[in-house]
Amino acid sequence: MPLEIRELVIKTTVSNQTGSTGDTGSAGKMKEANINEIVDKVFEILKEKSER
Questions:
Q1: Chain centroid to CA 35: how far?
Q2: Which Pfam families is this protein grouped with (predicted)?
Q3: Each residue of 12-48: b (16+ CB within 10 Å) or e?
Q4: Alpha-carbon distance 1 to 23, whole Å?
């Protein structure tokens, strides 16, 4: 029996805190890359859903 997902809820918390370490630039880039990857996956899922 197929499972149908009718609602997708995504919650996130975004803060604008700066760290006291000197390597915040690369950490910020890694976080941004992770966020972009997650957003791409969500868009792929939505695209697949709309094609059905």
A1: 4
A2: DUF5908
A3: eeeeeeeeeeeeeeeeeeeeeeeeeeeeeeeeeeeee
A4: 50
Tokens of 35: 């966020």
For residue 38, give both structure tokens: 């997650």
Q: Are 27 and 19 in contact (CB under 8 A)?
A: yes
d(CA 49, CA 39): 15
pTM: 0.44
